[in-house]
Amino acid sequence: MFGNRVASCLLILLWNFVACHAQQASIAPEVSEQERVQLQKDASKPNKRIWTPAAKAQVRLAQIGDRSQMEGIVCELLFGKTAETQYEATVKLGKVGGYASIQALARVMLDDPQYNARPQGFLGRPRDYAIKTLGQLVPGLIETRFQIFPPGATEEQIKSWYNWIQVHREELYKPPTDGWQVDKETCQKYLPRPRKKKPAVQTPSSVNRPAPTDVYASSQPTANT
Length: 225
What we know:
Radius of gyration: 25 Å
Number of helices: 13
Number of domains: 1
Order of helices and strands: HHHHHHHHHHHHH
Shape: globular
Oligomer: single chain
């Protein structure tokens, strides 16, 4: 229990750090072909928790327009197997920036989905983190008080923010622009697959073992006929 609380506190501190630097982080210079190859190699690793080299490579590639990496992050946001994966995808999108990140987060803000699994510690709703991140990516859209306390926003305010984003598409249409429209089927190739259980191995002593007998019944005297 104590460990879960510590982990939650670390996640919240990480969120605050990333939120303050979201705009700067989303401005990504181009990379050389050699750097791209190394990034792709790092991003291919299955563990993409936010602090890993794989996650950093995933974000970096998404920033420079790698659609598959962008789709992978959005899949984590919508269909991640754990609440922590979904939360960390919000952080990643805040670092990637661009129109694709804004649209993915706007959809979560509007739909208000639940986590796909119970959080290990304390986490706010996915909608809350989407509002916080959008406040950083689209300056002036969301009042500071709602970035600090997203649950205070009404449904009408949330719909107005979402509609504003749709109306101002051309103003917000900056790279990366693709990869935010995904479905569950598409995401199967990006999310870790559950491990298959190995079949039980029979030991030699368990093979062709005689069926157990009822000792009590066999010990009873047989009635004379």
